[in-house]
Amino acid sequence: MTSETSALARLTAERADAAAALAALRERFASLLDDSYVNTDDEHDIEGTSIPFEREQVRATLREATTRLAEIDAALARLAAGRFGSCETCGGPIEPGRLDARPWVRSCIGCASRPGRR
């Protein structure tokens, strides 16, 4: 199995997992929105979190899951274009171990660790 075939298999599996997680989060968020219209006194429930707090937690997780899916899709596009494994900043190769750990990364360790990078 070539490294590109391996990367495609891994990215495809990661994409399926990310899409399923995103769908579940969207359902959970919709449920929380529906719950917010129910007449409950959750602000005085010292045993649990409030619906607005939980809604914001799910909203933040939704943003992260959406970003992850977009990163995986971008990696699949780079793979299809023959640019997979090349740093988008310096053009050099991305370390194989880095790609094994996170096949959707866009930059090598050197570029990613420069000040000002996230």
TrEMBL record:
Keywords, sorted A to Z: Metal-binding, Zinc, Zinc-finger
SUPFAM superfamilies per UniProt: Glucocorticoid receptor-like (DNA-binding domain) (SSF57716)
Zinc-finger ranges (dksA C4-type): 87-111
A Pfam family reported for this protein in Swiss-Prot or TrEMBL: zf-dskA_traR
Domain Zinc finger DksA/TraR C4-type: 82-114
Protein name: Zinc finger DksA/TraR C4-type domain-containing protein
Molecular functions (GO terms): zinc ion binding
Record PANTHER family: GENERAL STRESS PROTEIN 16O, RNA POLYMERASE-BINDING TRANSCRIPTION FACTOR DKSA-RELATED
